[in-house]
Write a structure and sequence with these properties.
With about 350 residues, the protein is of the alpha+beta class. The chain is built from 14 helices and eleven strands.
């Protein structure tokens, strides 16, 4: 770029573009880390600036975004009050990490998809266990097809009672796999099962197998009063840590030439295992369908499928690890945002065309 033409470019493209270009240039020159930086194309730079402007025009409370392609960072931004060194609440992005732990445990022979849940907790069952409860499998917990009538976790989080016993006392009204009902209790049970089988908390189990090899440091994960990692929530990570996880998923579990997670598990976890249709009332009121909603593409093993051949780890208020195999790309975001479909649409509209 010739120096004398910069004022003209400022007038024609506007300050958002110049600010984003400056940010991207400086970040590529000054930051180092486990994920290398690539050289973004002019088209990507312009699209990234347009995305930032779109977010700010809409008043969305996005905290950070990082875009990788071909294993390199093309663009990154932290909004005011947030930064690269700050761990962020993951909410249900935590569930995808739990899924990876279960995949590892299965590969190590500690459990199987067809194991019955009640067999892990014979001392925590209600007096009269229903047939659907007796037949519930590990696979049903992974797919949110457990058949539980409701999610007791909001109440249990305020209680010191045994969470496993509290969950298993909730009525099970559908056979396993018959219907999808998003339920953090399923993920907590997966964590409790792994603890029973391995003798370690989920967090301790994953540390040498996942966090340490990925170079993820300074993370924390909330526990229940019984010392069981919550599984479905409570993990705190930095933005680049999320990107490492996304890149690992994209690479089918391989990191620097070493397999950390079996490729077949990631393939199964990121494939449609059950339909993920929301309530009929919500579908009709919001006009949802599979063409306009990323929440109706299906659910794998604690992973959501997306449009555009993508899949994602998703957490409340706009925490996302988007994996786009067809574009060899990963996009991660942290936020405090209530309109998560609009948040995804801004990514699809602005960034997808230039990847």
């Amino acid at each position: 770029m010739q120096k004398e033409k910069l004022p003209e470019m400022k007038r024609s493209l506007g300050r958002p573009f110049v600010a984003a270009l400056l940010f991207l240039t400086l970040s590529c020159q000054s930051r180092t880390g486990a994920i290398p930086h690539g050289k973004p194309s002019p088209a990507f730079q312009e699209a990234f600036a347009a995305y930032v402007q779109d977010v700010e025009d809409a008043g969305e409370d996005i905290h950070s975004i990082m875009v990788l392609q071909h294993g390199k960072i093309l663009g990154e931004k932290w909004w005011e009050g947030y930064g690269p060194a700050l761990p962020h609440e993951m909410w249900s992005v935590s569930k995808t990490f739990t899924s990876m732990a279960i995949g590892l445990a299965i590969s190590e022979g500690l459990l199987s998809l067809e194991d019955r849940v009640v067999d892990f907790f014979p001392d925590r069952l209600p007096t009269e266990a229903s047939t659907p409860l007796k037949e519930m499998r590990v696979n049903d917990l992974l797919t949110m097809g457990s058949g539980f009538e409701r999610d007791p976790c909001p109440q249990l989080r305020q209680s010191a009672e045994d969470w496993v016993q509290g969950i298993l006392s909730v009525p099970v009204i559908h056979p396993g796999g018959a219907s999808f009902k998003y339920n953090s209790a399923c993920t907590y049970l997966l964590s409790a099962i792994l603890t029973r089988q391995s003798g370690q908390s989920l967090a301790d189990y994953l540390k040498p197998r996942l966090f340490d090899p990925l170079g993820i440091e300074g993370w924390t994960w909330e526990e229940s009063p019984q010392g069981i990692t919550c599984g479905g929530w409570g993990l705190r990570l930095k933005t680049e840590d999320m990107a490492k996880m996304g890149q690992l998923l994209l690479q089918k579990g391989v990191w620097h030439g070493k397999s950390l997670i079996p490729a077949e598990w990631i393939t199964a976890a990121s494939s449609r295992q059950i339909a993920s249709h929301p309530s009929l009332e919500s579908v009709e009121r919001k006009g949802l369908n599979e063409e306009n909603s990323d929440w109706m593409q299906g659910y794998g093993y604690q992973i959501w499928l997306c449009r555009h051949g993508a899949f994602r780890a998703a957490g409340a208020h706009g925490q996302f690890i988007l994996v786009l195999p067809e574009r060899d790309a990963v996009i991660v975001m942290t936020a405090n945002n209530g309109k998560t479909q609009a948040q995804l649409n801004r990514v699809w509209d602005n960034l997808l065309p230039v990847l």
